[in-house]
Amino acid sequence: MRETPEELQRLQALLDASLSRSSAHLRSIVSDERTITAEQLTGVLTGMCTLALSTVTAKGEPRISGADGHFLHGMWHFGTARRAAKARHMAARPAVSAAHMRGEELGVFTHGTVEILNPYGEEPSAAWPELLAYLKDLYGAEMFDWEEEVVYYRLHPQWMTVFAAHPAALIAGAQDAKPEA
Fold it and tell me: Which of 39, 45, 119, 168 is close enough to 71 for a disulfide, judged by CB 3.0 to 4.6 Å?
């Protein structure tokens, strides 16, 4: 867990506000008994989490593709090839939706806008060095030409909700999976 107390507080406020302004139908599915807190979520979303990422073409047509997602500091981070269609879509239209699902047990649904962390030929975001170190540790420093081949994004969530079918089991499983200190 890399979140500060302030980041956890901000994430919890977002989760609460998102659910409160959702439809009655969604609130009947994502009830207090079938969701988890921001702190619990950051304990569950560790390592690489496959995202279904939705972008929009210039014609307004939706496109969905997969991405390696990393939930750090209360936000999704993900990358793609600089020349990928989704990179072009996000450069022109930064609003995206992302979903991470684990069978019927967990669903994390997010809508927001992306920020490019390592723009080509420009000054990277202040967040890029920490993310780059994390990615190199996870994937290996030689996996990519990190400056030329890949572009990484941070998804600034404007709406996020979490469905957990069995919260206690999900949290216990996440705790069991943590390496011993």
Answer: 45
CB of 63 closer than 8 Å to CB of 55: yes
Whole-angstrom Cα distance, residue 118 to residue 120?
6
Backbone angles phi, psi at 28, to 5 degrees: -75, -25
Predicted confidence (pLDDT) per residue in 105-133, tens digit = 999 999 999 999 999 999 999 999 999 99
Q: What is the CA radius of gyration of the chain?
A: 17
Give Cα separations from 106 to 69, 75, 92, 160, 171 (angstroms). 15, 17, 31, 13, 11
**Token output for 117:** 């962390």
Task: Report phi then psi at 140, rounded to 5.
Answer: 105, 140
**Dist CA 154 CA 54 (whole Å):** 14
Higher local confidence (pLDDT), 27 or 111: 111
Separation CA 103–CA 50 (nearest Å): 12
CB atoms within 10 A of CB 27: 14
DSSP-derived pairing of the beta strands 106-116 and 62-72: unpaired
Alpha carbon of 97 to those of 30, 63, 114, 160, 163: distances in Å? 18, 10, 10, 10, 16
